[in-house]
Amino acid sequence: MKDQTLAIHAGYDKDAQGTMAVPIYQTTAYEFRDAEHAANLFALKELGNIYTRLMNPTTDVFEKRFAALEGGVAAVGTASGMAAIFYAIANVAEAGDNIIVAKQVYGGTTTLTGHTIKRFGIETRYFDVNNPSEIEDLVDEKSKLILFESITNPSIDVADFDAIVSIANKHNILTCVDNTVATPMLCKPISLGCDIIVHSASKYTTGQGLAIGGIIVERDGLVKKIKGNSRYAHFNEPDESYHGLVYSDLPLPLFTLRVRLALLRDLGASPSPFNSWLYIQGLETLALRMKQHSSSALKIAGFLESHPRVKKVNYPGLASDKNHDLALKYFDGGYSGLLSFEVDGLDSAKAIANSTEIFKLVVNIGDSKSIITHPASTTHQQLSAQELMDAGVPAGLIRLSVGLEDTDDLIGDLTKALDA
To answer: What residues contact 116, with CB distance under 8 A and at least 6 apart?
Structure first.
């Protein structure tokens, strides 16, 4: 089935009532048939609902539907996009290990990988997403994950998937791609050879800024890369917390299963059933929205490129953009609604952000309402001057998340702010 059909139907078999809409199973726990049934579920001899911290029927539909859209084999929902990224790291790395992360990522990812993860004894090594060959010099026997974004936020660079995946496979390291900005409607990293996909479902998935959540998707056949791989010994050795279970021996998707059985079990950052239901509603219109977001963003990028106050526009849909060729190679149907542009310095950027009326000053993306953000003083404020430059976030950079309003109205709003 095509994406638009999958987004409406995948993962849901009608319940006993025959409801067309996916029900909200707003429950904490589930009744077992008998004591043996309960024991079998906890021992993984049978699969089924145990507790909503681990699984929930509404969340299950969301997970299956999202996995289908990404071309993956399984998915696990989380309480936020940051929880998804943390779980992807914690699922493979421990004290003494290292991960390799693109410098050009969301500010929260930078602080997680550059500061918080240190307290767990995990080292982060950074590479320039525009120069993926740097990864080669960062890899050693303790490297567990290469993490990057399909479209970087807010520098709006496009990752060279072929180059990164080639290096990762050469060293038998897992790749993890944050595909939040592109969404599976525009880019499918699994089809490009990537292993793990993460999303903030709080963005384009819900589409209206209604809920905080995340998701991790695993590609089919990942067990072949992990089984017998010394980098991932804990997948190949008995897990004493499950009576000696060896994940790589199971006939199930092992990466997301371990997130569910170990990390959700012990750390508990799971989505609420109501939020999962909201994401399901959002997925039904995601394809249509991404077309409009992309169309409007391209028109606005063209307007900004011609404005005398604008020094530079970052949007891969522009023929003049350095990432245009990569975008043509890896994206289909548009380039998302996120763009950034640079003006002359901090004061000018703040003044413009303060002057728009339709574009609201908000630190979010992917909303139906258009958003303007000054990253250097908000989402990336915690970074040093050098870190800001490395992340592609100069002081005069302004990020726009183009919503679903009339495009001419949005251009008029930006015109007033730029000409003020």
So the answer is: none
Domains of the chain: residue spans and CATH: 3-274 (3.40.640.10), 287-419 (3.90.1150.10)
pLDDT tens string 105-119: 998 999 999 999 999
Give the mean model confidence (pLDDT) for residues 357-368.
96
* Average pLDDT of the residues of the chain: 95
Among 373, 400, 395, smallest CA distance to 384 is for 395
DSSP state for residue 132 in the 8-state scheme:
G
In the structure encoding, which two tokens stand for residue 350, read together?
């703040």
Which pair of tokens denotes residue 267?
């750390």
Q: How far apart are CA 390 and CA 400, in angstroms?
A: 20
Q: Name residue 288's amino acid.
A: L
Tell me which residue of 232, 279, 240 sits closest to 261, measured CA to CA: 240
Ordered DSSP codes for 339-366: EEEE-SSHHHHHHHHHH-SSSEE-S--S
Q: Taking the CB of residue 217, how many other CB atoms lie within 10 A of it?
A: 31
- 218 beta partners: 74, 196
State what percent of residues in the chain have pLDDT above 70: 99
pLDDT at 44: 83
Distance of CA 156 to the CA centre of its chain: 14
- 8 A C-beta contact, residue 349 and residue 374: yes
pLDDT at position 390 is 72
Give the pLDDT score at 256. 98
Per-residue pLDDT for 413 more than 90? yes
CA gap 59, 279 in Å, rounded: 9
Rounded Cα distance between 38 and 58, Å, is: 21
Helix residue ranges per DSSP H, 139-226: 161-170, 223-226
